[in-house]
Amino acid sequence: MVGHIARNSDRKASGEGLCHVTLTDGEVIARVLAGEVDAYGILVERYQRRFTRFATRLLGNREDAEEALQDAFLRAYRALARYQDRQRFGPWFYRILVNRCRSMLAQRRRRGMLERDLSREPASHVTREPDGDPAWLLRHLPLDQREVFLLRYVEDMSFEDIAALTGVGVSALKMRVKRGLDRLRRLEQEREDA
User: Fold this and answer.
1) Domain with 136 in it
2) CATH at 150
3) Would you say residue 163 lies in a domain?
4) Which long-range contacts (CB under 8 A, 24 or more apart) does 136-145 make?
5) Which residue from 6, 28, 116, 164 could staple onto 41, CB 3.0 to 4.6 Å apart?
6) pLDDT in tens, 112-154
């Protein structure tokens, strides 16, 4: 449905001259709520690349990320009428996407599809992975640390914006980043020592 919306939005936008006018998120949402369903494709197009990158890094693979993203866009679409701060679609959508990613990770764990958490494995297992792979290192951070690390250093969000997004205090977020960086340094050192 989201892909259909995006394709139809391109046609509709070009037909109405919207390609030359940048609508705010709030204006797009108002159009959708007024019955112009295809306008939702503007939001999908605006945020899809960024959110796909984030979800891929959080989940570890693009296929799961695309599934989580599709589901999150559908959930956001269904909840638009209840959404209050219409000028800030991005942070609101992040919450939906992060919750969907967390659910997918929990489902994987229940099905036994996740690898063992390296924090419980002996250090000798760390050397199995190729050197110089930052994605591998990130996958071995606990989810709460990986999430804030990606939001801060990949998505370039401020701690205040991350706090608003996650509901976690700024000082707690900074501590998660510090612990995550400490863990990444330990993993990298273990690989170098091996």
Assistant:
1) 118-194
2) 1.10.10.10
3) yes
4) 137/184, 137/187, 137/188, 138/57, 138/184, 139/60, 140/183, 140/187, 141/180, 141/183, 141/184, 142/117, 142/180, 143/58, 143/102, 143/105, 144/176, 145/176, 145/177, 145/179, 145/180, 145/183
5) 6
6) 654 544 444 444 334 344 445 667 777 788 888 988 988 888 8
